[in-house]
Amino acid sequence: MRRLACALACTSLLLASPARAQAPRPGLAVLQQQVREAERAFAKTMADRDHAEFASMLADEAVFFAGLTPQRGKAVVAAAWKPLYEGPSAPFSWEPEAVEVLESGTLAISSGPVRDPSGKRVGTYNSIWRLEAPGVWKIVFDKGCPQAPPCDCARP
Asked: What fold characterizes domain 25-146?
């Protein structure tokens, strides 16, 4: 009898509790699109000269590579990039060309061309994004590199 009462009490508690089922994780194609849109919004901050929005897209522990010394932390990265937002026009632009997301759906990479104000490709960027909340991606790593000269592949 005691077991039956205990079982009934536990069942009642379970039935009275709200369901706590997790929503299914979006598929990889949806996650890739989220990252692509986040990267485009990130690039738009430069075109719009919106430094505050740029900073809002950085993870607190973001690391940006600039020269030999990495910039560590959201405040440091935001301060280092502030001069790039102060002029009337953007000194460069970028756009995602490739986006990949881990199967876990928690990290992603985006890469693509960096262009000068005339539209000439001058480099390539690579950004690592982390999913911080459903649909909210923040940059954790960023590194750009200059455009490499074409190789002479015929040379031995």
From this structure: Nuclear Transport Factor 2; Chain: A, (3.10.450)
CA end-to-end distance (rounded Å), the chain: 87
Domain segments of the chain as ranges: 25-146
**3 state SS of 150:** coil
Gap between the Cα atoms of 144 and 79, Å rounded = 18
Quote the pLDDT of residue 32.
98
Task: Kindly tell me the sign of the dihedral angle through the C-alpha atoms of 87, 78, 37, 41.
Answer: negative
Strand-pair partners of 124: 113, 145
Check pLDDT > 80 for residue 107.
Answer: yes
State how far Cα 154 lies from the chain centre.
Answer: 38
Cα–Cα distance list, 97 to 11, 112, 121 (Å): 53, 4, 13
For the full predicted model, state whether its pTM sits above 0.70: yes
